[in-house]
Write a structure and sequence with these properties.
- The complex is a heterodimer.
- Helix content of chain A is 62%, strand content 0%.
- Chain A has helices spanning 6-22, 28-38, 45-56, 65-75, 89-100, 106-110, 114-123, 139-159.
- In chain A, helix 1 (6-22) packs parallel to helix 8 and helix 3 crosses helix 4.
- By secondary structure, chain B is mostly beta strands.
- Chain B has a domain at 319-427.
- Chain B has three helices and 18 strands.
- Chain B has helices at 2-22, 166-170, 347-350; strands at residues 26-42, 48-64, 70-82, 88-101, 109-120, 128-139, 144-151, 185-197, 200-212, 221-235, 239-253, 260-275, 281-289, 329-337, 352-363, 382-396, 399-410, 421-431.
- Chain B has an 18-stranded antiparallel β-barrel.
- The two termini of chain B are 32 Å apart.
- Classes of the chains: A mainly alpha, B mainly beta.
């Protein structure tokens, strides 16, 4: 098996970004959790919450996936907060916008939710390729999207 | 007329619903409301308030196989209201598209589309129009092949902008019931493009042929063929250059008159200098030239075809206050836009973009052009300058406004009978 597989590169990139942003030491538990997330063909609500919240620094890396899901459910009331349930592309976009405080368009301001969240992230080129609100997404794609969110946050912080 | 519209609407609705049911895996629906309000003075009639309201509704159904192959069905309808016409309902897109990665080799992507959708040649100077037809693209990293064909005779007339001959123009008269559909023309296009070839960013070779499907007995019938090359190149990270050359041949068959053969040529250059770190600045220079057809025996002939050379299938939008035809045209266009709040933390403020520009229009032969009145005694080639300014503001991702103004400064070549030519428009667009 080649050393530089897609998952390995994504994991390394994500670890590096999180490390730089949060200046935390990556724990062994975090590595294990991330490994298990990367095996998911369809990312679950708990896993999506975990990567978004730990990436933003809103949740400690020692937290469990269930804890992440519970915290996300408080932030995103519309979500089906069952940790194991696959999350849709629209819901993941909505969760990302809520977690990182990304502002939306006029329709999003009136009707915040997955439908307009995915449109906003498509407009900002954070979500790329074929993307529909009801589509499920793999953990790899979720991490790629999150990588662009973190990249955008980094650029914004650099401008301040 | 009403019966025709009812039948057309029924067909559109059925076509909208049927594939949506089949592909109802991932659905997206939305729309855009667009308003354009403005004063326009064309130099002939008094200034007039023009208003256009458009409501566009879009439905998209998407499905994907495990192999990565995917299919998309897109339907887009438009409801339009203007002062001149109470309403217009039209199907802009009814497209079934399949994408097949790896279908013809590991690195290949095949894209096939059928239905009603937007067609364009690589330069956008011959054809930029909706048509009913099919398209096939085979893409490899080093080469892309494109073949497509379409028919314009089912596009309803106010939406059809296919105007090549005087008969095409006469068919745009909506007072005549027979003019429900636009000109019946079929076209085929074949293209090859090479990304990252030698020092170029891309090289495209293409050929397009259009055929007048009307009977010769009905009036003049015109067929044209085009052969083109386009290159794209960048100099450093800020300067981009596009260059194209199109050769055209055409045959005009008129009842009771001898058949005519004409030739045309269109040459274009576009330079863009992008300096994003200096208030998002963008400079753009464009030059287009279409010389007259020197093979024509009688250059004093007032018929555009065969004298003024290049004839596209539909005229591209080149001016704001004036609407020049490409035939026999020389154009120099300089534009500058910037974002005064480019580095602002507020995305709303960063979306403000003033634009200023000027266009110089020439005729490439001292024959009467068909888009503005000229002094018959003048031999001068220079026609005038259009200065334009705009304030474009993308307030949110789904809400944008702009105010555009343009004023045409005529040269001495323009007939003194013409009044001032100017336009001032306010546009609003909301997506939902």
């Amino acid at each position: 098996m080649p050393f530089f597989t897609g998952k390995r590169i994504l994991r390394t990139a994500l670890l590096a970004v999180i490390f730089c942003c949060a200046v935390f030491t990556v724990s062994a538990d975090f590595n294990t959790t991330l490994d298990s997330i990367l095996t998911e063909d369809q990312i679950s609500f708990g896993s999506a919450s975990f990567i978004l919240l730990t990436g933003s620094g809103a949740l400690s890396e020692d937290a469990t996936i269930e804890e992440a899901a519970a915290k996300m459910a408080e932030m995103v009331p519309k979500a089906d907060a069952s940790a194991d349930k696959p999350v849709t592309m629209g819901m993941f976009s909505y969760m990302a916008m809520k977690t990182y405080g990304i502002s939306g368009g006029i329709m999003y301001r009136f009707f915040p939710g997955p439908r307009y969240a995915i449109r906003e992230l498509r407009y900002k080129k954070i979500v790329q390729g074929n993307a529909y609100s009801t589509m499920t997404l793999s953990s790899e794609r979720a991490l790629r999207i999150m990588g662009r969110v973190l990249d955008r946050e980094e650029k914004k912080n650099a401008e301040k | 007329m009403r019966k025709n519209r009812l039948i057309l609407t029924t067909i559109i609705v059925m076509m909208l619903l049927a594939p949506a049911c089949i592909f109802a895996i991932n659905l997206d629906a939305g729309g855009t409301f667009y308003n354009s309000t403005g004063f326009v003075s064309d130099g002939i009639e008094d200034q007039d308030l023009e208003q256009l309201n458009t409501l566009t509704l879009r439905l998209e159904a998407y499905t994907e196989a495990e192999s990565g192959a995917n299919g998309t069905f897109t339907a887009q309808g438009r409801y339009e209201y203007t002062d001149e016409r109470s309403f217009l309902i039209d199907a802009e897109i009814l497209r079934l598209k399949g994408t097949f990665p790896g279908a013809m080799g590991e690195t290949s992507i095949v894209e096939a589309s059928a239905g009603r959708f937007f067609f364009s040649d690589p330069t956008g100077m011959i054809l930029t129009h909706t048509a009913d037809g099919a398209s096939f693209q085979l893409m490899y990293p080093k080469v892309r092949l494109m073949a497509e064909g379409g028919y314009t005779g089912l596009i309803i007339n106010p939406s059809s902008d296919i105007r090549m001959t005087r008969i095409d123009l006469s068919e745009s008269d909506l007072e005549i019931e027979d003019n429900f559909y636009g000109p019946k023309r079929a076209f085929g296009q074949f293209g090859l493009s090479f990304p990252e070839l030698w020092w170029l960013n891309s090289l495209s070779l293409f050929t397009l042929a259009q055929f007048d499907m009307r009977d010769e007995d009905e009036g003049a019938v015109m067929n044209t063929q085009y052969l083109g090359i386009q290159t794209e190149r960048s100099y450093g990270k800020n300067l981009y250059q596009d260059l194209f050359l199109i050769l055209q041949a055409g045959q005009l068959k008129t009842p009771d008159l001898e058949d005519r053969v004409g030739y045309g040529l269109l040459l274009g250059l576009r330079l863009r200098y992008l300096k994003e770190d200096f208030f998002g600045s963008r400079f753009e220079f464009r030059a287009i030239g279409a010389p007259p057809d020197i093979s024509t025996d009688d250059l004093s002939d007032k018929i555009p075809f065969g004298v003024l050379g290049f004839v596209p299938m539909n005229q591209p939008d080149l001016g704001e206050a004036v609407s020049p035809s490409l035939s026999g045209l020389g154009l120099f266009d300089l534009n500058y836009s910037f974002r005064p709040f480019y580095n602002s933390k507020s995305e709303t403020a960063a979306g403000i973009q003033p634009v200023i520009g000027a266009k110089g229009y020439l005729r490439t032969y001292s024959v009467k052009v068909d888009w503005i009145d000229t002094d018959p005694d003048s031999d001068s080639l220079y026609l005038g300058t259009e200065i334009n300014a705009a304030l474009v503001w993308r307030i949110f991702s789904d809400l944008g406004i702009d105010i555009k103004g343009a004023y045409f400064l005529p040269s001495s070549t323009i007939s003194e009978d013409m009044d001032a030519i100017w336009a001032l428009r306010f546009n609003l667009s909301v997506s939902f």
